[in-house]
Fold this protein.
Amino acid sequence: MRALLPCFAFAATLAAEPAWKLTLEDNFDGTELNAKVWTIETGKRRDSLNSPKAVDVKDGVLKITTWTDADGTTYCGFVTSRKKFHVTQGKTEARCRFSVQPGTQIAFWAQSPTYGRSGKAAGAAEDGVEIDILETTGLKKGGYQSVLHWGPYGNKDEKKSSSVQHPANVGAEWHTYGVEWDGAGYRFTFDGQPAWKDEKCPGSKAPQFLLFTSESNIKGWNGERPKEGYGLKTASLNTFEVDWVKAWERVPAASAPAAK
């Protein structure tokens, strides 16, 4: 028979378990994004234009549609919580589905406003890390990848990355994608179950903002855009949908009472 823990030992065990404080829950109700949390960033990025024209909130869903107008301009959506909401050594999850075509990449990710500031990969814990929770392109045929980037982007000697491929075709159905991070590393989940763990990348101590984005190239690592583009918004099948997003901060465990 397994010995029972004394009461004080059991209390100490409970105290060692961290608690979580929900700091963000957005179900995308209404017809507009919550301006206290989100910004739709605008302007040229890669071979497309970030624009509110690519972003809709309707029926409880944030929908980013990557599409091409009659003049050949391709519109993408870049929704971020930059300067408004951050997570520091916590966790985040979002329920998403997607249909992505070649030449486009979509992502649910977290980034730090001080990324690469030290100029060294070794400074990533303080600088912050690019955490790509869900990233995919039309070439992945409904599969996706999770990626960590750290160190300054422009320095090939200091820029580091770690990744895992999830090749199963899951994009057309709703699934929950998440990550939790602390000083020990990063733990990614799929529908609440462990999907990947990384301990090579320094655990970011920096505040990380959240992003839901699409990006498009004429030709790049994400494939080649069709010559005619993706069609008008009402016809485009190039979509990224988010049902909800949540985030939590870790609450330090209370000190266990001294044994008597």
About this structure: Helices lie at 7-16, 124-127. The radius of gyration is 20 Å.
